[in-house]
Amino acid sequence: MLNYTIRRLLISIPTLLFISLVIFLLLDLAPGDPMSSIPLTVPPEVKEKMREALGLGEPVHIRFLNWLYQFFVVEPQVAWDHLFGTDFAEGKQRIISFQSRSPVMTVVAERMPQTLWVVGLSYVIGILIALPIGIISAYKQYSWFDQIGTFISMIGFSIPTFFSGVLLIVVFSVILQWFPSIYDTTHTVTDWGSFWYQVKQMIMPVSVLALYNAAQISRFMRASMLDNLNQDYVRTARAKGMSEKVVVLSHVLRNSMIPVVTVIALGVPTIFGGAIITEQVFQVNGLGQMLITAIYASDAPMVQTLTFIFAVLIVLFNLIADILYGILDPRIRYD
Amino acid sequence: MADGAAPVLNVRDLTTVFKTRSGAVHAVNSVSFSLKPGELLGIVGESGSGKSVTMMSLIGLIPAPPAIVSGEAVEFGGLDLLTATDDELRRIRGARIGFVFQDPMTSLNPVFTIGHQIMEPLRKHMGMTKPEARARAQALLELVGIPDAERRLKDYPHQFSGGMRQRVMIAIALACDPEVLIADEPTTALDVTIQAQILELMHELRAKLGMAVIWITHDLGVIAGIADRVLVMYGGQIVEHADVRDLFKQPRHPYTRALLQTVPRVRGERAERLEVIEGQPPILHAAPSSCSFAARCPFSFERCLRENPARFEVGPGHDAACFYDFDAGGPRHVG
């Protein structure tokens, strides 16, 4: 298993380098100009100087190698310095956002907690709702519970989050005025009152995303349980006199979780990237929203870095899913 | 075997009906038989004759609904299994009645070790601690002839061959010293040499442990080798019941006679063409009101289409459900 993991990690290096090149070239080919938001009154020669100051005068391969050096050498050094108080990165050029002129990774570190709290929490809640629903729906197939569960998952599955988000805002913020419609990132929790406010502003974005995640995962769980409930080994377990609880929650569930865990692990990167639209709807100052504004402003270093981070997460969680698969299913051996 | 002893299992008038969308299917129709202590009762019949469903029905392994199991009584150990609660049935299954199923490749749970699967009933029914159960599991594996038992306990089903898995299934079935072992086509999925080994093993185990065995098969050759008494099933009914010698010497039901003719003979200069029974076994959408074999029977006459024959006694311990009297060479003159 260790061998396999190391081999996979080594293979992912060229993969990621190739991905970063593709992203870089695509961004370079994309229309749009970081100068387009500069007022028209600024003379062209000043604009030209500004472009050069941003490093846009260099040829494409130099800019790419520069970015690679900054991402893989300078930024880790900065992080190291930050943690251990050393000064390896002293005087070296970091990846700078065109928009804010501040280092991209600093902004990412600032935005990360919001995304993790709102989107991550919704993923966890979604999973916690989905698993029992999937298990019960399958065990009591075609019961009223299953029918209602199927109907709600269908709704959660088919209504896009930008619609359900706006719907919730209209109902609960505008008409009922229970929850704030805009997520206040600057809010800090100091006492029970402010904690309650934090809960209130998280309820809507979290429930929109949780519904969406739960709909998908509960379907997977149900299908996987149904696959296993009719297997011969279930009859064997019953013939051994095992209680229904042991039969379903031990024998069937252990087998059914194998594909579901894989799906859950593969879904983790979407926590960081996939909630872009929901963050936009609720004005959560997270990574997704940052990516959208960076794209509008043709902020290539920011888009490049964020997209690449998503790519790293996807490759990483693919590996994690494969490893989990190997741990959960004794029939899979990688060595 | 112990003639006249009180039967361990006494089934009276067992009927199983499946309610499906395309109508009812009468899979088991008024089946009555008894099992004496220590005897091996063979049940023969082609696929779909209701052999397995009968066995599953009497111990509550048939999913109900869609199945409806009814009857006069299934007496086992002073209890009527038809009126017993689920809990009471669970305490009998795996403890006092053991099961071996047809397909050893799918009957074991792929994600648990063999040791775990053997220890489960031991811990549940016999209240053993883990070390006690492990010691017993090891002894059981040795009993069924699996070498290197201590190490093999930690292996998963996929690390065993088909024959070895069936040995493991037998070990599980025998774990709690059952009074009755129900073997549902245990050798059908195995190749001939492995089949011979399993039969040999069953011979030994019966001599050693002395439990009663119900052996379901469609292979008359297997039955001839091991059974004491035989039930022949057709259309969810018992059509003939006799000692194994009587059955092969003097079959008294046209279906049994036809079955015996389908057994290939290899003696003689050249192999003869295989005899076949033309037609298909019936799917009964209502309780039988005529002889269900009449359509395929060369001896059938008008009464067979009008009335469903009862089981007539044709000799000591030998009965057949047929209006044709082979001894007299004509229709039977009864009620």
Q: What descriptive keywords fit this protein?
A:
A: about 325 residues, mainly alpha, MetI-like fold, B: about 325 residues, alpha/beta, Rossmann fold, eight-stranded mixed sheet, five-stranded antiparallel sheet, 15 strands, about 25% strand, globular, membrane (chain B), ATP hydrolysis activity (chain B), Peptide/nickel transport system ATP-binding protein (chain B), nucleotide-binding (chain B)
Total DSSP E strands of chain A: 0
Numbering strands along the chain, what is their spatial order in the largest sheet of chain B? 7-8-9-3-10-11-13-12
Derived from helix and strand composition plus strand pairing, the structural class of chain B reads alpha/beta
Q: Looking at the structure, what is the overall shape of chain B?
A: globular
Average of the residue pLDDT scores of chain A: 87
CATH class identity of the domain at 111-296 in chain A: Mainly Alpha
Cα-based radius of gyration of chain A, to the nearest Å: 24 Å
Organism (chain A): Celeribacter baekdonensis
Protein name (chain A): Peptide/nickel transport system permease protein
Family (chain A): Belongs to the binding-protein-dependent transport system permease family.
Membrane topology (chain A): Multi-pass membrane protein
